[in-house]
Amino acid sequence: MPISFDPTPNTRKARDYFHRAAVEQMRPISRHYDDLEHAFPQEWVDWWWREGRRGPQDLDWTGPHDGMIRVCVQAEELCWGDAALYLRTPTAALGGSAVAAAGTPEQKARFLAPFDGDGPPVWGAMAITESGAGSDAAAIQTTAAQDGDEWVLNGTKIFCTSGEGASMHEGGFVVVWATLDRSAGRAGIKSFVVPACTPGMRLIGLEKKLGIRASDTATLVFEDCRIPRGNLLGSAEVRRREGAATGDKGFKGAMATFDASRPIVAAMAVGVGRASLDFVREALAREGVPVRPEAPRHAQGAVERDVLEMEAELQAARLLTWRAAAMMSHGRPNNLEASMAKAKAGLVVTRITQQVVEILGPPGYSQQLLAEKWMRDAKINDIYEGTQQINQLIVARRILDYSSAVLR
Ligand SMILES: Cc1cc2nc3c(=O)[nH]c(=O)nc-3n(C[C@H](O)[C@H](O)[C@H](O)COP(=O)(O)OP(=O)(O)OC[C@H]3O[C@@H](n4cnc5c(N)ncnc54)[C@H](O)[C@@H]3O)c2cc1C
Predict the structure, then answer these.
(1) 302-306 long-range CB contacts below 8 Å, 24 or more apart?
(2) Which residues, 6+ apart, have CB-to-CB distance to 57 below 8 Å?
(3) 383 CB under 6 A from ligand 1?
(4) Which atom belonging to ligand 1 lies closest to the Cα atom of 211?
(5) pLDDT by residue (tens digit) across 274-295?
(6) I need a surface site. Which of 34, 109, 273, 353 has the fewest CB within 10 A?
(7) For residue 240, what pLDDT is reported?
(8) How many angstroms separate the alpha carbon of residue 186 from the centre of ligand 1?
(9) In this model, does residue 214 exceed pLDDT 50?
């Protein structure tokens, strides 16, 4: 089935709305919250909760809609504004994707309602990573044990984006991956929703980071943390399969959350890359340096060629992103395409932001400009939601039809 990438009128309106938000709400405070790493961006959170989350008022909901592409367009625009503030925005984020993908209607209503409600701002988060389990999520050591009508969680999660917001602001939640049976490997791993402020869940620290410094990246400890039985996402059954290479559907189902989130991270990367590229193009235009895609190659200058190559790469990343997003919206499996988009966009944004700093000369390296910040903000797109290497591995497995046991 052919997929059209023409944004619908609604998506164009959304793009314009979020671009204005990026220019007016985010850019003016971008440097400030990067400098003050763990300060709470009150004005951004307030604006988003009051206005931003509702989007443009005049959308035609009866017209055609392109689902995930609109989400990607929104992510690109807001990350053009500031990727760290985007991550700090009160939304259900990755935790919400997990609940939406694996939750029952009752769980969706219970956990997601505060995000549309009139109460105070709320955050969602996803806690998978541990000190010995990152790329290899099957190595998770955090345990969940049943005790009557409750699950009891024990373990430590690190590098949890929005971990502060989601664990400490009433109404939010953290989706925690834990094992019901360590001896069962990946078949034992399930995800649990831990509501904010649950006794036994403790925030013990925030990372000081290279980039996306306004984003709260938390270490969370779970000590005899009790949650209701109904907070397990999916089935409690541990289905072992003798010699099974890929684990049970529960683990695969949990991993499938990435098929939805990787296109969004790829779109975020494209947003940061475009911020850099737009900036350098404007700087070159002020200096009278032309960028002429129509000029023959031998007539183009070195910088001109660099800019055109970066634009082509960025466009390629965006098209891969939209393809993965569109497939998701059409209910088509997009595991390969989501990883392709994420791997490409992570690489492209890292290269573009570095090259832009180089082209700008010393001011590019200075805090006078945001170019150095974008270079720092770029690299994370190559790390979380599966590193560059892991996404390349997934692409290779899919293309060559190898299982994760054979190609790892
Ligand atoms: C700012 C930030 C925010 C984050 N937010 C979250 C979050 O919200 N929730 C969450 O759960 N986690 C989060 N993470 C964690 C992130 O997802 C992990 O860091 C990432 O998955 C890599 O895992 P690791 O750190 O254990 O590295 P490792 O798995 O130890 O990898 C180290 C290096 O080895 C490479 N490598 C590993 N295995 C292979 C292989 N088989 N083949 C080739 N190369 C390989 C990796 O690509 C990497 O370069 C965040 C991390 C950061 C830095």
Answers:
(1) 303/359, 306/355, 306/359
(2) none
(3) yes
(4) 1
(5) 999 999 999 999 999 999 999 9
(6) 109
(7) 73
(8) 17
(9) yes
Enter the tokens of residue 119: 């109460």
The residues that are catalytic are: 385
For residue 177 and ligand 1, the question of a CB distance below 6 A is answered with no
Mean pLDDT of 396-402: 95
User: What's the 352 CA to ligand 1 centre distance in angstroms?
Assistant: 22
What does the pLDDT look like over 82-113, one tens digit per residue?
A: 999 999 999 999 999 899 888 999 999 999 99
Instruction: Say yes or no to pLDDT of 60 above 90.
Output: no
More confident residue, 250 or 33: 33
214 lines ligand 1 (CB under 6 A): no
Q: Measured from the CB, is residue 315 less than 6 Å from ligand 1? A: no
* Ligand 1 centroid – CA 128 distance (Å): 10
386: CA distance to ligand 1 center in Å?
6
Q: Is the CB of 393 under 6 A from ligand 1?
A: yes
Mutate to test the pocket of ligand 1, among 208, 384, 393, 397 (most ligand atoms within 8 A of CB): 384
